[in-house]
Design a protein that fits this description.
The complex is a heterodimer of chains A (383) and B (207).
Chain A lengths: L2 H5 L8 E5 L3 E2 L5 E2 L2 E8 L9 E5 L26 E2 L4 E2 L4 E5 L14 E2 L4 E2 L9 H15 L4 E7 L1 H12 L6 E5 L7 H15 L17 H15 L2 H7 L19 H16 L2 H13 L2 H5 L2 H5 L5 E7 L7 H13 L4 E6 L7 H4 L1 H21 L1
Parallel strand pairs in A: 5-8, 5-11, 6-7, 11-12, 12-13, 13-14
Antiparallel strand pairs in A: 1-4, 2-3, 4-8, 9-10
Chain B lengths: L10 H11 L5 E5 L5 H10 L2 E6 L2 H9 L3 E4 L14 E7 L8 H11 E9 L4 H10 L23 H10 L3 E8 L4 E3 L5 H6 L2 E7 L1
Parallel strand pairs in B: 1-2, 1-4, 2-3, 4-5
Antiparallel strand pairs in B: 5-8, 6-7, 6-8
Classes of the chains: A alpha/beta (383), B alpha/beta (207).
């Protein structure tokens, strides 16, 4: 890549690691540790340690949110379109932090990590955790980094759930929260898709009850099927028509067999195949479970009650073609916050991209996020 | 929703009247807040807190760019997320006539707001009467610039209509300001001349 390509992003970055030595009490009651957290930071923490923005990734993301790791990288971090100098999350102003989720497989301790007590990967001995447990880990990372207040916490999809939970768990340190394409609880339909994904993994004989790390064959078929199912939910009918139509893949007519005919088949298969190279099947089971369990109304009695103690200013964004976490679910959060008289803004962005829009529609999002963040700088100085 | 109004001449007069009506530091909900111009003025000059509701994505983004809190939504769906009397003022500026259920919207705003500010173009204004009477077609003006087939103003009303409606629904009219191009008249009782000469009206109401 050339220097000019690097100019409008954060440049070369490195994933760092921090190990939380003490045990963390999980929601299930289990005490677990140590946990190593993989994270990246962009921009500089100011003297008051209050310009930090915690950005949280979605289901299969990682700590690498912006910039490049090396010159050989084909792609920058997953939210590079929004994080960087003068971008939505302006790294000239803010200290942006992103960490890999607890239970993940991109550097943070998860089922594929070595259990220090046995010298072997945890596998399904890894304790089941919740979204609340994942933000506990993130809070410990912030303490380690010396962050006193979060200027904002932001995330899309599962990242949005964590952002919400963070604002609820640590109301005293969160100035604002940006919740994108997210929900306070999954619909039964969304749980159903996760269940089918997990079922694909568990029914793969190579899954071997989660114990496959030293085996020659891994549950790749199951994991890639899970990813294919997931991908369907990230798109929408219109997105699929736009992207593939009924076009055939490298052929003019049907083959009259069960090989791949349609482009959409080929795309899903490709997504499944590349996924197994970067993701762990057990992590997929654990993280989707945490997402399924997430239910703020159930946990706090009501959604309104969940946000009762939060003083954060909220920005909520949904996409009209997202049927996985539809606008209706964002509006539930908006309504609960309005009911409490909290400061909240909500925008439903028109997009043909489905749930994936939060990663793709960066122009509008950039504008909205920038305005929202700018606004409370002004308010803070007024006070 | 009231974007069509932003270019009309009455705008500044209308805004300055509303600015005068709202007490400082009050909590305000602006329904159909458009690009947020009025709410921004209220925030800057009257130190109000609160937010707007706007149906159009473009308007919502313009509000956010002005640093306002805004909810994208349709006021015809009601205000069920807002508790009773949770705002000092609920404003419906030049939007009543383009709602689907004006009676429901008014009831909802009166429930949520301690006081409400409602403004609308007076369809009994003499020029409008003349257009219909002499020219025989649907009146158009700077305030009502649309054709019959594309107008968002589907529930046009007169000052008299509003007084009758208020009486039937036990709505108290606390303030009434009737504007023409040349001057302003005030009054909380129905006045046949206002209904004839006022191009636009702004009421403060409560229940």
């Amino acid at each position: 890549m050339t220097v000019t390509e690097l100019k409008d992003n954060v440049g070369f970055v490195k994933t760092e690691f921090y190990t939380i030595e003490e045990k963390i009490k999980f929601e299930s009651g289990v005490e677990f540790g140590p946990v190593t957290v993989a994270y990246e930071t962009y921009g500089k923490l100011n003297e008051n340690a209050d310009n930090a923005i915690l950005v949280i990734h979605a289901l299969t993301g990682d700590a690498h949110a912006a910039g490049y790791h090396s010159e050989d990288d084909k792609k920058p971090g997953w939210w590079d379109t929004l994080i960087g100098p003068e971008k939505g999350f302006d790294t000239n102003k803010y200290f942006v932090i992103c960490s890999n989720i607890l239970g993940g497989c991109s550097g943070t301790t998860g089922p594929s990590s070595i259990n220090p007590e046995t010298g072997k990967p945890y596998g399904i001995d890894f304790p089941v955790f919740t979204i609340e447990d994942t933000v506990k880990v993130q809070k410990k990372l912030l303490d380690y980094l010396g962050v006193k207040r979060l200027y904002s916490v932001a995330g899309g999809s599962m990242g949005g759930m964590q952002a919400m939970q963070f604002a609820i768990s640590y109301p005293e340190i969160v100035n604002s929260a940006i919740l994108i394409a997210t929900t306070s609880r999954l619909s039964p339909q969304a749980i159903a898709f996760n269940a089918v994904g997990r079922n694909a993994i568990i029914s793969d004989p190579c899954w071997n009850n989660g114990d496959y790390y030293d085996k020659p064959q891994k549950p790749d078929r199951g994991l890639s099927s899970a990813r294919m199912i997931g991908h369907i939910t990230y798109l929408c009918e219109e997105a699929m028509y736009n992207k593939f139509g009924r076009k055939l893949q490298d052929k003019d007519q049907y083959d009259f067999n069960f090989d791949i005919d349609f482009q959409v088949e080929s795309y899903l298969q490709h997504q499944g195949q590349i996924f197994v190279d970067r993701f762990d099947a057990n992590s997929y089971l654990y993280i989707t479970k945490a997402v399924d369990y997430f239910d703020l109304a159930d946990k706090y009695g009501s959604l309104t009650n969940a946000f009762k103690n939060s003083n954060a200013k909220y920005l909520i964004i949904s996409f009209d073609s997202d049927w996985l976490f539809p606008s209706r679910q964002s509006k539930e959060i908006v309504n609960a916050l309005m009911n409490l008289g909290k400061d909240v803004s909500y925008c439903e962005i028109e997009s043909p991209c489905g749930h994936d829009a939060f990663l793709l529609e960066y122009d509008v999002q950039s504008k909205i996020i920038k305005s929202f963040l700018n606004d409370h700088i002004k308010e803070d100085t007024d006070e | 929703m009231n974007n069509h109004y932003a270019t009309s001449k009455g705008l500044h007069l209308n805004y300055s009247i509303i600015l005068n009506m709202i007490e400082e530091n009050s909590r305000v909900l602006d329904l159909g807040c458009g690009n947020g111009e009025l709410l921004k003025l209220l925030k800057d000059r009257k130190k109000v807190t609160g937010n707007g509701i706007e149906i159009d994505q473009k308007g919502v983004i313009q509000c956010l760019e002005k640093g306002l809190s805004v909810i994208q939504g349709d006021i015809d769906d009601g205000l069920k997320q807002f508790p009773d009397k949770s705002y000092d003022y609920v404003i419906l500026n030049q939007t009543l006539q383009s709602t689907y259920n004006p009676d429901f919207v008014l009831e909802e705003m009166l429930r949520v707001g301690k006081k409400c500010v409602v403004s609308f173009p007076n369809f009994a204004y003499w020029r409008i009467r003349c257009e219909l009477f002499f020219k025989g077609h649907m009146p158009k003006s700077k305030i009502l610039p649309f054709e019959w087939y594309n107008t968002p103003n589907i529930h046009l009303l007169t000052i008299k209509d509003f007084f009758e409606f208020s009486k039937e629904h036990n709505i108290k009219i606390l303030e009434g300001i009737y504007t023409t191009k040349a001057n302003i008249r005030k009054g909380i009782q129905y006045n046949i001349f206002s209904n004839f000469f006022a191009e636009e009206v702004i009421f403060v109401i409560s229940k």
